[in-house]
Write a structure and sequence with these properties.
alpha+beta, about 110 residues
Amino acid sequence: MRYHIADNLYTEAIDEKKVRRLILKLRLKRPVRNLYVVTMPLFDAGIMEIYDYNELLQPFYRKRKQNLEVLGLSSTRDGAKCIVANILEDAYDKLGTPDIRRFFGIGGAG
């Protein structure tokens, strides 16, 4: 699985310098404690998903050929929930609809 980091990545309670280091660790597939990622759904069921990042390092996910669209990073699950709410609100304000794919400029499903 490859990670595609959104250009307008949302973060919660993480400073900019640490965000850059976390993105590098994601690309290198290194374990990180207390990191939650907000992503597009892997199985096209729902609008967004929240994962404990270390869960994505398990063989089930690593073997997948699909790219994972990372929309947000947080050090807590509650922070990740806030990111989801903020993304939905921003998408609705900008587009008039909660079309997350269009808001982030992501192509078709898959």
